[in-house]
Design a protein that fits this description.
With 344 residues, the protein is of the alpha/beta class. The protein has two domains: 246 residues, TIM Barrel (Alpha-Beta Barrel), CATH 3.20.20.70; 68 residues, Four Helix Bundle (Hemerythrin (Met), subunit A) (Up-down Bundle), CATH 1.20.120.1460. The chain contains 16 helices and eight strands. It has an eight-stranded parallel β-barrel with strand order 1-2-3-4-5-6-7-8, surrounded by five helices. Helix 3 runs parallel beside helix 5 and helix 15 packs antiparallel against helix 16. Keywords: Flavoprotein, FMN, NADP, Oxidoreductase, RNA-binding, tRNA processing, tRNA-binding. Its EC number is 1.3.1.91. GO terms for molecular function: tRNA-dihydrouridine20 synthase activity. Catalyzes the synthesis of 5,6-dihydrouridine (D), a modified base found in the D-loop of most tRNAs, via the reduction of the C5-C6 double bond in target uridines. Specifically modifies U20 and U20a in tRNAs. It holds the Pfam family Dus.
């Protein structure tokens, strides 16, 4: 059912280890990011870290049920991988969760954090924080039909509903009535009007202590923290107080940071993946995708930040940006870009 199985076991040299039994994959994860964490991005990220939990972009129930494309497509090499769903109809969410489990996803996550107008108009995302009982119904409907974990990603409040008591009531309702035992909390509240999605990631202040307190008050629940995490040192500091850390834009814009996750966060003793070898290990995947009609730029756009801080990084980015979109662009474009880094 999964595509491109032939690429998943190629180039095992310097590849990350399998998930450690000592730590759950959710100890460190890359956030679901719309238009960014697509299947090509996740395949690339998996080359850098074997243990990080990867998330799909948010996929709406309507797209899965009524869309013409395969919105559940992924590569077997991506495991552990979670599907993030957007929706508020328990029956539709249950249908999609069942399909996702059949396809082999390791987790189903409900988006209760996205503040965009488009999401609100569809009655899902952060606006659902104001409807805790409905969220509980959604989670229960999915848990009733799947055996994989069903989790929630949420904010710490919305608009003027931003008291700690409001947050506790939301968590308690979803946990007790819905049976959810795992939450990822973006440590900012969301303004449902007046701020763009970008501003909602930056303007509301971060409140990490509130998430730490939530973990203390609900010690039986798994709590991961998200928002503003830029280094693995910061991640390790958060792990003194919560069960997991989710990194977003930094992991995307500076993917080289992921090469240190298995050792720094999961205690792996294997050598960290070499970025040059990671690029070369992508060649079979790129060739397989090109043969199926994928454009080179759809893959390489996720790789632009790999050599951040390394001499030649700018030439790498420029060569890919200027040439990957051209007609007939193939793996030779990547080889040429890599030579601009390797030769320095």
């Amino acid at each position: 059912m999964h595509e491109n199985k032939e690429t998943s076991n190629l180039h095992q040299t310097s590849q990350p280890q399998a998930v450690s039994p000592e730590y759950p994959a959710g100890r460190f994860s890359v956030a679901p990011m719309l238009d960014w964490t697509d299947r090509h991005c996740r395949y690339f990220h998996r080359k850098l870290t074997g243990q990080t939990l990867l998330y799909t972009e948010m996929v709406t129930t309507g797209a899965i049920i009524h869309g013409k494309g395969d919105y559940l497509a992924y590569n077997d090499a991506e495991h552990p991988v979670a599907l993030q769903l957007g929706g508020s109809d328990p029956a539709a969410l249950a249908q999609c969760a069942r399909l996702a489990e059949q396809r082999g996803y390791d987790e189903i996550n409900l988006n209760v954090g996205c503040p965009s107008d488009r999401v609100q108009n569809g009655r899902f995302g952060a606006c659902l924080m104001g409807e805790a009982a409905l969220v509980a119904d959604c989670i229960k409907a999915m848990r009733d039909v799947v055996s994989v974990p069903v989790t929630v990603k949420t904010r710490i409040g919305i608009d003027d509903q931003d008291s700690y008591a409001f947050l506790c009531d939301f968590i308690r309702t979803v946990a007790e009535q819905g049976g959810c035992d795992s939450f990822t909390l973006h440590a900012r509240k969301a303004w449902l009007s007046g701020l763009s999605p970008k501003e909602n990631r930056e303007v509301p202040p971060l409140d990490y202590p509130r998430v730490y307190q939530l973990k203390r008050d609900f010690p039986h629940l798994t709590m991961a923290i998200n928002g503003g995490v830029k280094t693995l040192e910061e991640a390790k500091a958060h792990l003194q107080y919560v069960d997991g850390v989710m990194m977003g834009r930094e992991a995307y814009q500076n993917p080289g940071i992921l090469a240190q996750v298995d050792s720094e966060i999961f205690g792996s003793t294997s050598a960290s993946p070499d970025p040059f070898e990671v690029v070369r290990s992508m060649y079979p995947y790129i060739e397989a995708e090109l043969s199926q009609g994928t454009y080179l730029g759809h893959i390489t756009r996720h790789m632009l930040g790999l050599f951040q801080g390394i001499p030649g990084a700018r030439q790498w980015r420029r060569h890919l940006s200027e040439n990957a979109h051209k007609a007939g662009a193939d793996v030779r474009v990547v080889e040429q870009a890599l030579s601009l880094v390797a030769s320095r």
